[in-house]
Specification:
By secondary structure, the chain is an all-alpha fold. The chain is built from 3 helices and no strands. The protein has one domain.
Length: 84
C-alpha cells in the first residue's frame, strides 16, 4: 500500500538564494552573475551604533562577572588559610 502526503508546496516565484561561500567555484559564479546579485548585504544598517550598544551592555555584564570572580578568589584564599 503506497501512501503519499504533500509536505512541501513549492511556489514558482523566481527568487533564488545561492550560498557563494559554500561553493568551490564561487569566483566563477561571481563572474557569471551581475554585481547586484552577488553584492554583500549588511547585517545592520548602522554597524557602529549596533557595536556601541553591544559594547555598553558587555561593559556592565563583564564588570559584574569580574566582581563575582574576585569574591570567589577571596573566598578560596580564606578557605586555604583556614585549612593551614
Amino acid at each position: 500500500m503506497l501512501c503519499t502526503d504533500t509536505l512541501i508546496d513549492h511556489a514558482n516565484n523566481n527568487v533564488f538564494v545561492i550560498n557563494l561561500h559554500a561553493l568551490h567555484n564561487a569566483t566563477l559564479l561571481r563572474k557569471a552573475l551581475t554585481r547586484h546579485l552577488t553584492k554583500p548585504k549588511p547585517l545592520y544598517e548602522d554597524r557602529k551604533a549596533h557595536h556601541n550598544t553591544l559594547a555598553a551592555a558587555l561593559q556592565v555584564s563583564q564588570g559584574d562577572k569580574r566582581a563575582k570572580t574576585q569574591e570567589k578568589q577571596k573566598a578560596t584564599l580564606a578557605a586555604k588559610k583556614a585549612q593551614k
